[in-house]
């Protein structure tokens, strides 16, 4: 993704015959199927002149031919340059991601990627208090 190499990115995703892939980019609805997921990456790459990922808090869990990887993506990106500048304004974003991988004869491939923006600060370690509306239907 950082190098803008769509062919390499495409090779990372599980083939259609091995199971439906899915992807949730921050703020997007769920995308299902390899073609739809890859189209989303093509659109992102076409509209992003610069992107860099710093991964932290990485955790890996294995169960047979399935791996679950969670991490924090510290993303720095820039869009198109304006007024003759070399690069557009840079924007930082903090995202937590969950990635499911499946082992194939060709190696590990992404089965599902789900990324959500982090909106809580570092001192906000407790979830918001539940309200009566959160309780759901009564038994």
From TrEMBL:
Domain of life where this protein originates: Bacteria
Classification via SUPFAM superfamilies: NTF2-like
InterPro entries associated with the record: NTF2-like_dom_sf (IPR032710), SnoaL-like (IPR037401)
Region (Disordered): 119-139
All residue ranges annotated as the SnoaL-like domain in the record: 2-119
Gene3D superfamilies assigned to the protein according to its UniProt record, in alphabetical order: 3.10.450.50
Biased composition (Low complexity): 127-139
Protein name as annotated: Nuclear transport factor 2 family protein
